[in-house]
């Protein structure tokens, strides 16, 4: 499938798949979307509601370009165990064309961005003394973690092109992977997605979306 690097509305890059008319990130702004959906309404929300935290575990569904993990690395100030799952890893030559370090004014962290992408798959790596990264190449339906994560960044391709990734069965796997009171955040706000989350056991909130989207969803595991 053809792939091309494009510039989104906030100046940051993403990968575009013309055959699907789908991008790895919002065409309205890759960095803006990552901050709004995953950092503001995921990471920051969870830390604000769990002030006693000194360590956090995050699962990303769709590691992709590494943007969400890199921003989490920049913004988080407590020990982080980060697991990124990706069935089809981005090629090294594509990574070199991404402009996230420059657009985030994070030149001092370029080594860490490169280290994330250079890290071997299937092993836990120390990116620095407060951020550990494990990249797993597997299909989402194969995830069998139980009560391991505080937050899930659900950043799969959209339901329009991959509806099988947005089913009750997948969200049940996510529910089981989260600790009690853990949260899942995603850019999607489709009614079918919300209902699938609810059927899996989640308490689901509609929240204002990032630029270009009216709403997004946050789901909480309540017992």
TrEMBL record:
One GO-annotated biological process of the protein:
methylation
**Has UniProt tagged this entry with the keyword rRNA-binding?**
no
Molecular-function annotations in GO: oxidoreductase activity, acting on the CH-NH group of donors; tRNA (5-methylaminomethyl-2-thiouridylate)(34)-methyltransferase activity
Q: Which SUPFAM superfamilies match?
A: S-adenosyl-L-methionine-dependent methyltransferases (SSF53335)
Q: Which domain of life is it from?
A: Bacteria
The protein's matches in InterPro entries, at most eight in alphabetical order, are given as: MnmC-like_methylTransf, SAM-dependent_MTases_sf, tRNA_MNMC2
Q: Which residues form the MnmC-like methyltransferase domain?
A: 128-221
Keywords, in A-Z order: Methyltransferase, Transferase
The family database entries (PANTHER family) matched by this protein are listed as: MNMC-LIKE METHYLTRANSFERASE DOMAIN-CONTAINING PROTEIN, SLL0983 PROTEIN
UniProt-recorded name of the protein? SAM-dependent methyltransferase
Give the organism, scientific name: Tenacibaculum holothuriorum
């Amino acid at each position: 499938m053809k792939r091309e690097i494009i510039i989104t509305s906030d100046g940051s890059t993403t990968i575009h798949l013309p055959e699907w008319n789908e991008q790895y990130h919002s065409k309205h702004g890759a960095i803006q979307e990552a901050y709004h959906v995953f950092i503001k309404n995921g990471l920051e929300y969870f830390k604000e509601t769990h002030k006693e935290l000194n360590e956090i575990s995050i699962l990303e569904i769709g590691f992709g370009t590494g943007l969400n993990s890199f921003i989490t690395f920049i913004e988080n100030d407590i020990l982080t165990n980060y697991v990124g799952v990706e069935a089809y890893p981005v090629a090294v030559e594509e990574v070199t064309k991404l402009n996230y370090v420059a657009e985030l004014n994070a030149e001092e962290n370029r080594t860490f961005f490169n280290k994330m992408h250079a890290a071997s798959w299937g092993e836990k790596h120390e990116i620095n003394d407060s951020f550990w990264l494990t990249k797993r190449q597997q299909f989402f339906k194969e995830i069998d973690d139980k009560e391991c994560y505080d937050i899930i960044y659900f950043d799969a391709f959209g339901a329009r092109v991959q509806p099988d990734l947005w089913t009750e069965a997948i969200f049940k796997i996510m529910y089981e992977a989260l600790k009690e009171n853990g949260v899942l955040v995603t850019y999607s706000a489709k009614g079918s997605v919300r209902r699938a989350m609810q059927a899996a056991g989640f308490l689901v909130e509609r929240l204002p979306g990032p630029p270009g989207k009216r709403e997004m969803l946050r789901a909480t595991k309540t017992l």
